[in-house]
């Protein structure tokens, strides 16, 4: 009898919990700007995946339209991400943004072990798209939970997850943060 109630309690707990594939601590745009070595606005032009140390990594080339922060001598930059497909094997890493060829993006990048990685996995990736003749930058937080850095609790208020910006205003804000 007790086992039956325990099972019901466990099932109710599972169904009532908010499930997120990835949970990350929220960081401000200001902090992410300061912690990134390079910030670019560009277009995804190619990608390939390879095996490295029993894992698959994807290398994506971005054609830089505008260098927002940092120094970089080429008009193309390569970003490394965990996961990808090699042959018939796919490794998927929750929260890793998909950099699709042809898409425009704003990326906050950190140099780690000789490669550029997107800052805070999904937080440092903004896809650029056009709507009603206006370019917007959006950070897709689908299936990603955010933790408030002060309270250490999940951020549930959707107004605190503001992640869509008019592109030029967004770029100007990031530039102003990078000068502080």
Give a verbal description of the structure.
The structure is a single chain. The protein has 180 residues and is α+β, with helices and mostly antiparallel strands. The chain has a domain at 20-44 and 63-77 and 97-178. The chain is built from three helices and twelve strands, in the order H-E-H-E-E-E-E-E-E-E-E-E-E-E-H. The chain has helices at 2-16, 29-35, 167-178; strands at residues 22-25, 38-52, 55-69, 76-82, 84-86, 89-91, 104-112, 115-118, 125-131, 134-138, 144-147, 164-166. Strands 2, 3, 4, 7, 8, 9, 10 and 12 form an eight-stranded antiparallel sheet that branches. A two-stranded parallel sheet has the order 1-11. Strands 5-6 form a two-stranded antiparallel ribbon. Strand 9 (125-131) and strand 10 form a beta hairpin. The longest helix has 15 residues, at 2-16. The protein is globular, with a radius of gyration of 19 Å. The termini are far apart.
Distance between the termini: 64 Å
State which percent range the strand residues make up: 35-45%
Would you count the extended β strands for me? Answer: 12
Oligomer designation = single chain
Helix/strand layout:
Blueprint lengths: L1 H15 L5 E4 L3 H7 L2 E15 L2 E15 L6 E7 L1 E3 L2 E3 L12 E9 L2 E4 L6 E7 L2 E5 L5 E4 L16 E3 H12 L2
Parallel strand pairs: 1-11
Antiparallel strand pairs: 2-3, 2-7, 3-4, 5-6, 7-8, 7-9, 9-10, 10-12
């Amino acid at each position: 009898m007790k086992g039956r109630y325990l099972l019901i309690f466990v099932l109710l707990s599972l169904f009532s919990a908010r499930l997120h594939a990835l949970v990350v601590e929220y960081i401000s745009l200001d902090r992410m700007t300061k912690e990134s070595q390079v910030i670019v606005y560009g277009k995804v032009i190619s990608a390939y995946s390879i095996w490295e140390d029993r894992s698959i990594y994807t290398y994506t080339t971005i054609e830089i339209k505008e260098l927002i922060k940092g120094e970089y001598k080429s008009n193309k930059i390569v970003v490394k991400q965990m996961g990808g497909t090699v042959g018939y094997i796919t490794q998927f890493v929750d929260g890793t943004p998909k950099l699709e060829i042809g898409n425009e993006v704003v990326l906050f990048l950190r140099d780690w072990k000789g490669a550029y990685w997107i800052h805070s996995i999904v937080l440092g990736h903004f896809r650029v798209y056009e709507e009603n003749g206006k370019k917007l930058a959006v950070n897709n937080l689908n299936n990603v939970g955010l933790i408030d850095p002060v309270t250490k609790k999940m951020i549930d208020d959707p107004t605190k997850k503001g992640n869509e910006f008019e592109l030029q205003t967004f770029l100007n804000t990031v530039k102003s943060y990078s000068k502080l």
